[in-house]
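Minutes, project huddle
Topic: does the predicted pose make sense with NAP bound?
PN asked that the exact inputs be recorded in the minutes so nobody has to dig through chat later. Recorded below.
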Amino acid sequence: MGENTYPWKSVWITGASTGIGRQLALSLAASGVKVAVSARSAGKLAELAAGNPGVTAYPLDVTDRAAVAAAAAEINDAAGGIDLAIFNAGTWHPNAAVDLDGAKAAKSMAVNYLGVVYGIEAVLPHMRQRGLGHIAFTGSVAGYRGLPKSCHYGPTKAALINLAETLSIELNREGICVTIINPGFVDTPMTEVNDFPMPFLMTPEDAAGRILEKLPRKPFEIAFPWPLVRQLKFTQMLPPALYVRLIRRFLGSKAKPQR
Ligand SMILES: NC(=O)c1ccc[n+]([C@@H]2O[C@H](COP(=O)([O-])OP(=O)(O)OC[C@H]3O[C@@H](n4cnc5c(N)ncnc54)[C@H](OP(=O)(O)O)[C@@H]3O)[C@@H](O)[C@H]2O)c1
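Predicted holo structure (tokens), as shared on screen:
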């Protein structure tokens, strides 16, 4: 175990059984940070904890508000305060607009958005009591603008970006910092289902490395990889009507004239 060069003694990560969250936990634990890991897969979390001193498993479903509150209280007590919480659990299934499904949309919103809200709700009183703390959560560049196949996922990530802005404005004066993490494509179990090209696909190691390099500086946003982020951020400057017209033309879809 290396010397802890991070500004946190204790970190809670949700969505830590695989992918980006698991890699964040491994990197932090290797530096001597105490890491509490959560996800539904208790077996995977137990394996992670068994192989890495300083990692403790708190299995839960982030859509279970009471379970999230109980875990936060337990982790806070055990660690003497949560310095950094990374709410990273998420779910994605590509769906075309013609397959829009209310039940799938509700499930996506419950995990990706409410799962984060429940986590923040649970750590906030503890952080406010201490007058310090850092709350980070994983959005996506897919939250910048409406994208194809993203009718269930995209709105959850757009909501998180909006939430981060709201919270950052108000919590900063309480000594609590908020960071939104917006990755591009990362090669994890989540993206295994994708049957379309994923430009600038990164490894979870690379993604976690970029997050942990920037997070200590407490930025409002961490977004990567830059070549993809730059293009998508440019589209954010376009008025919505112009954006959809350009994307339709780019994708070659012939929209029916509106009456
Ligand atoms: N991969 C990408 O290209 C990409 C791009 C942009 C943003 N992101 C975001 O990055 C985050 C991490 O994704 P990833 O790529 O690392 O995918 P992943 O490997 O599939 O990880 C998703 C994690 O979320 C957990 N999870 C899912 N539903 C949960 C629930 N109801 N309760 C608790 N935990 C739950 C999963 O664990 P269990 O199944 O064990 O519960 C797993 O640990 C997500 O928020 C995702 O939207 C990913």
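Observations noted during the meeting:
- The pocket of NAP is lined by residues 14-21, 39-41, 61-63, 88-92, 111, 138, 140, 183, 185-186, 188-191 (CB under 6 Å).
- The chain has a mean pLDDT of 95.
No decisions taken; revisit at the next huddle.
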